[in-house]
Description:
Oligomer: single chain
Structural class: mainly beta
Amino acid sequence: xxxxxxxxxxxxxxxxxxxxxxxxxxxxxxxxxxxxxxxxxxxxxxxxxxxxxxxxxxxxxxxxxxxxxxxxxxxxxxxxxxxxxxxxxxxxxxxxxxxxxxxxxxxxxxxxxxxxxxxxxxxxxxxxxxxxxxxxxxxxxxxxxxxxxxxxxxxxxxxxxxxxxxxxx
Length: 169
């Protein structure tokens, strides 16, 4: 089905935005919870976003009306000194749920997505940038065309690895 294939392509192209650096909550200075508060090794914390969308664009879907919950769980595993910089090693787990109706591709489609991401990140505390992030994720979704009652399902299982280099100018 062309609608399902287009949704799969758009969703997988934008899935990273819904996880570690999700589309509407990106904080490049404090990516692990939006705060500069001091964390202790072994400490865990949670950051949760509940959103209601009324006609905005969501990755892979235009004119989405519905709700989503993105819950990030972080654990500071260790802090290590490398080449004079302090590097924080952080484990992360993200749980995503989204449900609503999308009005695109000349149809009205009821959609439901849920998924989980697991990752390990390294953050340079000295210079304030993400050094590395490895994420594996599983996303399952279903949809139903409200005009034809046709249904489809989507499963995305993938891994992403990001590595950044800092150059002082």
